[in-house]
Amino acid sequence: MQRQPGRGVGGAGLGTGKKTRLNRILHQHGLRNGTAIFLPYDHGLEHGPRDFFDNPVVSDPAYIIRLALEGGFNGIAVQIGLAEKFYWDYAGEVPLILKLNGKTDIPSDAEALSPLHASVADAVRLGADAVGYTLYVGSPAQETDFRQLRQVREDAQRLGMPLIVWAYPRGAAIEGKGGRDSFYAVDYAARTASELGADMVKVNFPHPEKVSGVKDAYQHEFSPQQAIDAVVRSANRTLVLVSGGEKAGDEAMLEKTRQSMEAGATGLIFGRNVWQREHDESLRFVARLREILSQHPRAGAPGA
Ligand SMILES: O=C(CO)COP(=O)(O)O
């Protein structure tokens, strides 16, 4: 049977540890139907505490982990410091995705590089089910980034740890080519993560408007659905997660979710749109996301 884009991972290259962990994330948590919703919480490092101002309770990592449990998430993504101090109380109840690199947004993004500050061995020690790596596709520092990612990929392969790449187009060059969220940029980022060995890739939803300064192929009229279809195709056997971005209207988020799932994405990684609201509101919103994902089950165990 021909594989559907984004519907199966691995094959011969997938070790048993990776397969076990992916199976735990995709089939033993959340909806248990091969889809996923992750709760990311690395904003305190990436943006500083400003993202917590409107709803101060979310500055408490324990609140977020409890929200992930109550909302039936497939995992939480945090940096090492929070994983070490807060995951202990909830170990094994919701899968941990340990972010291995990260940076502040105090310097400009012109030469963006996200340095490593944790290892795949840390992820094993903490009982994580995946590691996260932020790759700045197109940055002038791309060469160093690729080298860092190679080390992480080799360690992940050796230790049986799934690798999720946050594939962000960044750096001076991308601003002249439609910008970081353009269809061209997101499509290229998805393909790059796949080419470099990611098991899952996290991308922003592409903006399909025509842009100047990029290849002719991207100059046609595309609908949002055509753009996300192409991004999932570009990722091929790398599973696609679509991110939330800044807080937006619920209907826009739900539509983005429908289009992503229709395209063959595995799921979502929504942070601010989930936790920048009152607790009950967060749970109600997540229930609506789950309703959409429940209509798009993904076949079989990973690697099957
Ligand atoms: O993956 C993410 C941050 O690491 C996405 O977070 P947001 O949904 O808040 O954009």
From TrEMBL:
Organism domain of life: Bacteria
InterPro entries in the record: Aldolase_TIM, DeoC/FbaB/LacD_aldolase, DeoC/FbaB_aldolase, FbaB-like
Name this protein carries in UniProt: Fructose-bisphosphate aldolase
